[in-house]
Design goal:
The radius of gyration is 22 Å and the shape is globular. By secondary structure, it is of the alpha/beta class. The chain has 2 domains: about 170 residues, 3-Layer(aba) Sandwich (Rossmann fold), CATH 3.40.50.10180; about 170 residues, glycerate kinase, domain 1 (3-Layer(aba) Sandwich), CATH 3.40.1480.10. The strands form 2 sheets. The protein has a 6-stranded mixed beta sheet. It has a 3-stranded parallel beta sheet with strand order 1-2-3.
Length: about 350
């Protein structure tokens, strides 16, 4: 087992990748290779293309993560700067038979996006990768070496990533064995055992975190104000997916902590509603927390400590806010990742709001 950096790649990841490729070199047409893929693979499986340094990849990755780009967009860039992502691992394994078992950490479970699809035909292009940098105003922040590399790819001066129809995929099978839907189904069963009336809102929540929080609160408000809905309490609302945060402040936090804080502001003064949002991998952003818990009293409790929730949200400093309240969820790494899990509990008091 080789531990390496995530979400920003490091030298250990490069060393581990080289060691893996040495193993592949011993494979032939009679070899069966079982490849286990899960979330985080894009950072852990790292080998930059010739002419691009690891440090340049690290800087670009950090900028992409802070930009608010979707994971599919981020990974289209990653795939076109890697010797192993975007189907290249399958190419290196050919003519061996490859069985890839995948735990998905991406909405809708697209195999080409999960861990940047090392054994899957790549659907993206050099042009797509360059357009991502343009879309999020990252051209001026990206080393010219990388820009030039993408332009060379667009002009077909260097090969594209392996595509559908390439013979290297004739002996590859990719199977999804775990995903967010299964996690939500498990949570639903547990909620029933605990006496709650569970309802899965969606397992495909994505987009800007604050907008996702507003969507959930509006869903709750419409639910409790609908005179035709015959609610049976206690209720457990569940949702999954993976949102993004456009970082504009200088604080510390993650998308789940930011979700909980945004919900707290929307729920200010409301009774009978409690929100939990956490990453199933146990790590939310560059913190030691998986997420946080909030309710209608969270903002008032913060104010008593001299902390205004909106100021902390504006500074992307949700970790500091929740740490002061003791409302962080700290469980340590779970060693798996099927995106995020949100649990919202409602009791009869919510009808009085």
């Amino acid at each position: 087992i080789i531990e390496a950096g995530h979400p920003i790649p490091d030298e250990k990841g490069v060393d581990g990748t080289k060691e893996l490729l040495e193993i592949l070199q011993r494979a032939d047409e009679k070899t069966l290779i079982v490849c286990l893929i899960s979330g985080g693979g894009s950072a852990l499986l790292t080998l930059p293309v010739a002419g691009v340094s690891l440090e340049q990849i690290r800087i670009l990755t950090g900028n992409l993560i802070k930009s608010g780009a979707a994971i599919s967009e981020i990974n289209s860039v990653r795939k076109h700067l890697s010797c192993v992502k975007g189907g290249y691992l399958a190419k290196m394994a050919y003519p061996a038979t490859v069985l890839t078992l995948i735990i998905s950490d991406v909405v809708f479970d697209p195999p080409d996006v999960i861990a940047s699809g090392p054994t899957v035909p790549d659907l993206s292009t050099y042009k797509d990768a360059l357009n991502v940098l343009k879309r999020y105003d990252l051209i001026d922040k990206t080393p010219q070496t990388i820009i030039n590399y993408f332009i060379r790819g667009i002009h077909e001066d260097i090969p594209e990533t392996p595509k559908d129809g390439d013979r290297v995929f004739t002996k590859v099978r990719n199977i999804i064995i775990g995903n967010n839907r299964r996690a939500l189904t498990g949570a639903e069963s547990q909620a029933k055992e605990l006496g709650y009336k569970p309802n899965i809102i969606s397992n495909t929540i994505e987009g800007e975190t604050r907008k996702a929080a507003a969507f959930h609160i509006n869903y709750i408000k419409s639910l409790i104000t609908d005179k035709n809905s015959k609610l049976k309490f206690p209720i457990c609302l569940l949702s999954g997916g993976e949102t993004t945060v456009t970082v504009r402040g200088t604080g510390k936090g993650g998308r789940n902590q930011e979700f909980a804080l945004a919900c707290a502001i929307e729920l200010k003064g409301m009774d009978g509603i409690c929100v939990l949002s956490c990453g199933t991998d146990g790590i939310d952003g560059p913190t030691d927390a998986a997420g946080a818990i909030s309710d209608g009293e969270t903002c008032n409790r913060g104010r008593l400590l001299g902390n205004e929730a909106q100021m902390f949200l504006d500074n992307n400093d949700s970790y500091t806010f929740f740490k002061s309240l003791g409302n962080l969820i700290i469980i340590g790494p779970t060693h798996t990742n099927v995106m995020d899990l949100r649990i919202i509990l409602l009791d009869e008091r919510c009808l009085k709001n």
